[in-house]
């Protein structure tokens, strides 16, 4: 427009020059010409003034839009990171957590408190960001600028920022409530842990102590079997009376399971450990009582003295290296050798079939007692036979065929004569027989 206006400047000047020339020529209607020329010049000047005002107005509006555009850009620059922060904050505030201790929930509370401490600064950032938008609106209202309502630099609107900020403020107290509820739950869990541990740390060692005491009673050779039985019965009654403590621990364990407590740093004993130990204790006391009862029956049935039983027990205990009431085959072999047995592999295998008929690989004390009782009884019988032959032989170390036929029934005499070997020694008549080796062989070999 200004270019077009400038193009007409020469024409206005030409009109003024023509009017001037007419005046110089004393044109008869110069007044009319001058008036007309003055009107044209005044209109031209007014048009120039209006043009300048229009330019000034447009330049002012342009600067306002530049300012608004800069504010739009500044809003976008600040709104984007603030919006991302709010998205992250909302995600964290709604994050589900699983904790198993007071320390873990306290760590979450500390982190939440640190987050809440940043809210005032975040609110300042929100106010500053919204202040930019308010400045845009103020400029538009002041200068009558109609805004399109769309920020060309971001899809985020001031309402988006406001809504998310309100959501963050709403979630903060909810998170506080969740954390405090979890604190109360973990405190309750900790009480259950300590309550269980306080009992388990007593019951566990008590079971172990009783196991050791029962083992000591079972190997004690100081008293009689009846005294051992009395002590064991007393232990059994004490164990039965202690069952209420196990039941109470089971109750606490059930509460822990219902509260989803699966670890306890206050004790090394779990309910499974205690149950296994308790069952072992019941089994051990029952087995030990049964063993002592069998020993009493064996002693009474076979006429073994208490001293012999004590000797057997001492030998067994000495070679029971694991102290578990059982001997390994190697320990049993060493025990037999120490007692004077001359064992080959075949003979030892035969003995093992007697003491370990089920092939368990161990020799119990009861099996050891049965074997030693049988061996002792056989030894005693052999001695008795030797003593009988010695009487028949009139205290001689050999016996003659005539003496056997005179003193024994024909069948027994023939049996002995056919089985006895010739006596090897001085002072014996021809045909004398060795009744000592015969008596030993009679109870030492299965084919006799």
Explain this structure to me?
- With 448 residues, the protein is mainly alpha-helical.
- It folds into four domains: 1-156, Methane Monooxygenase Hydroxylase, Chain G, domain 1 (Up-down Bundle), CATH 1.20.58.60; 188-293, Methane Monooxygenase Hydroxylase, Chain G, domain 1; 303-376, Orthogonal Bundle (Recoverin, domain 1); 382-443, EF-hand (Recoverin, domain 1).
- Helix content is 76%, strand content 2%.
- It is built from 16 helices and four strands.
- It has helices at residues 2-7, 9-24, 30-93, 102-117, 119-143, 158-219, 225-241, 243-258, 271-302, 306-319, 329-338, 345-355, 365-392, 401-407, 410-419, 435-442; strands at residues 326-327, 363-364, 421-422, 433-434.
- The strands form two sheets. A two-stranded antiparallel sheet has the order 1-2. It has a two-stranded antiparallel ribbon with strand order 3-4.
- Helix 6 packs parallel to helix 9 (271-302).
- The radius of gyration is 59 Å and the shape is rod-shaped.
- It starts with a helix and ends in a 6-residue tail after the last helix.
- The model has no long low-confidence stretch (mean pLDDT 87).
- Residues 225-252 form a coiled coil.
- Keywords: Actin-binding, Calcium, Coiled coil, Metal-binding, Repeat.
Average pLDDT taken over every residue = 87
What proportion of the residues form beta strands (DSSP E)?
A: under 5%
Shape descriptor reads rod-shaped
Structural class: mainly alpha
Please state the oligomeric state of the protein chains shown: single chain
Order of helices and strands: HHHHHHHHHHEHHEHHHEEH
Keywords: Actin-binding, Calcium, Coiled coil, Metal-binding, Repeat
Protein name: Actinin alpha 3
InterPro entries: EF-hand-dom_pair (IPR011992), EF-hand_Ca_insen (IPR014837), EF_hand_dom (IPR002048), Spectrin/alpha-actinin (IPR018159), Spectrin_repeat (IPR002017)
GO molecular function, one term: calcium ion binding
